[in-house]
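Schema walk-through. Below, the input block comes first and the output block second. Nothing else is stored per chain. Lengths vary across the set, and this one has 297 residues.
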Amino acid sequence: MRAKTGKRDLMKPSAASDAIVCSICSLPKPSMLRCRVCDEASASPRALRGPLAVAQGFLLFFRALFELLQDRRHRRILAYASLASFVLSLGAIALFGYGAYGYVSEWTTELPDWLSLGLSWGAVALALLLTIGLGLYLFPTLASICLFPTLEPLSRSGEERILGWAPPPSTRGFWGDSWDAVLTLFFTLLWQTLALLLIIPIALTGIASLPVAMAISSFFAGFAWIDYPLARRGLGFRAKWRISVRNGFLLCGFGLGFQALLFVPVLGLFLAIPTAALGSASLYYHLSKSSARDSRS
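--- output ---
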């Protein structure tokens, strides 16, 4: 159960900060500056609704990818993310392959050499396929644990780019944010497991049902990443679920972009997680702009 946390995180500044809170979107801002989020909300057209929001969420994800690749401040983080993801992937493939080869070769010793060798390498190939399949399901969560030191700076960098100034630091400190991150990763794995259990029966019913399965998995992927900025603001599960369901199409588009990048050979896993962490800030503030726009209309 997620520990209760105060809502005086990034949504509201501390007493020592010189920032004030916008009366419309409740976002912190320096007293001498206007709220960029609300200004953009009033100047931009109404947010897309329904299936059109899927394309909007998809574009939000890949805009974050372009920003990640172009901004020099993110190169060191990207290098660390690539190295950690590569080591994790290589270790998992070696572990699965070596384990399958050793297990199969042990009980095929009495068979002819050609048959024993064929079964052993066939088991290795099957293990590699299973590893690749798990890579789209389990690796993002495991890699997020290794990449935790990079996710917080990326999220804050995304917020600074959107707001125009550095957001006030969390009042809960490093350990409080770390605890929220661990719980977020746990819930990410939980949602991925639930999505997998829902996808398999639907996908087995025929090719026509694959879009439904993809929509379910995309929604849970988007929900897993929007949970990261929402958890830092102390929102409970019910509040997170209401926000996610109300913006389900937008989250489906963001999650679809995340899954599409995972399918890119070699580079997919290296880029998908840092991009999602950076893009989650844009996704969160996009929801905030929609709320501000609705309050003004």
